[in-house]
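User: Sequence for DUF4190 domain-containing protein below. Tokens please.
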Amino acid sequence: MSDAYRSPDSTGPTTQPAHASAPAPGTARNGMAVAALVTGIASLLLLWLWFVGIPLALVAIGLGIAALRRARGGAGGRGMAITGLTLGAVTVVIAGILVAVGVSLLNSDEGKDLRSCLDKAQTQQEQQACTNRFNDDVDD
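Assistant: Structure tokens for DUF4190 domain-containing protein:
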């Protein structure tokens, strides 16, 4: 090969190392942090299925706490652990707010009227009429 085709810094054939170098310290993976993040996101997205969203939120909180403990030991993933823990906590708070609103709504006068009407209803059409009346009362 002529010198015209060589780069200025090449002095000859290059050799590649036989193995990859070890990762730098502090870049170790923390699987629990990834799991906390994934379950935290899933819990928030699946909150409307309360029997799935709330347990996932509790799992995200537990995994987030465990991942933070591992991160202190140098496993990394601290940001993912905090995010998963936070998303799980936000899901639990939103679920609590929704339960409180639902209970207060059902304990209101309109809610008591709905329960009374549904107890007296004997057909599907009567139950639907009760529900429609309840919706109209709540909207006003």
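Residues 103 and 124 are 24 Å apart (CA to CA).
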